[in-house]
Amino acid sequence: MDRLLVNLDHRCAPSDHNRGLALLEVLIALALVSVVLLGLAGLSTVAIKGANLSREMTTGVTLAQDKLEEIRLSGYQPSLSGAISQVEPYGSMTEEPLYTRTVSVQPNTPTVGLQTITVTVQWDADAHSSSLSTMLAE
């Protein structure tokens, strides 16, 4: 019976071969974790850029919508005989100096008695833009 216990103890004792495998397994696990973390870092960079573009686009649409509402409040301009275009250059809008806004008014378009108003907002050195249009009737 003593021999059986001795043999069992001998089998449970770790060998040098098993220690080497454990170290190899740890190194492989660390390599896999590193690859996953690098992938997550790249994904977070893309998410941050996407969120920034979304914020810029929302600001651009809001600026265009605000100007359209202002023009709607002033109403139809019967005195217009030709198309007009008004530009608010970069830096002229104190609340958003990184944006420029252009308002175009086309009288009698698409038909007599209608005015087509288009507001275009640009940002990022004109690399991005947003446009909204509406029509005013007599």
If you had to describe this structure to a student in words, what would you say it looks like?
Helices cover 51% and strands 25% of the residues. With 138 residues, the chain is α+β, with helices and mostly antiparallel strands. It has one domain. Strands 1-2-3-4 form a four-stranded antiparallel sheet, with helices on one face. 9% of the residues are buried.
Keywords:
138 residues; four-stranded antiparallel beta sheet; rod-shaped; 4 strands
Task: State the shape.
Answer: rod-shaped
Main sheet record: 4 strands, antiparallel
What is the overall number of helices?
2
Please count the beta strands (DSSP E, at least 2 residues each).
4
Structural class: alpha+beta
Q: How many domains make up the coordinates?
A: 1
Gap from first CA to last CA: 110 Å
- N to C succession of SSEs: HHEEEE
Estimated share of beta-strand residues:
15-25%
Q: Taking all residues together, what is the mean pLDDT?
A: 86
Helical fraction: 40-55%
Unreliable residue stretches: none
**Strands of the biggest beta sheet: in what spatial order?**
1-2-3-4
Radius of gyration: 34 Å
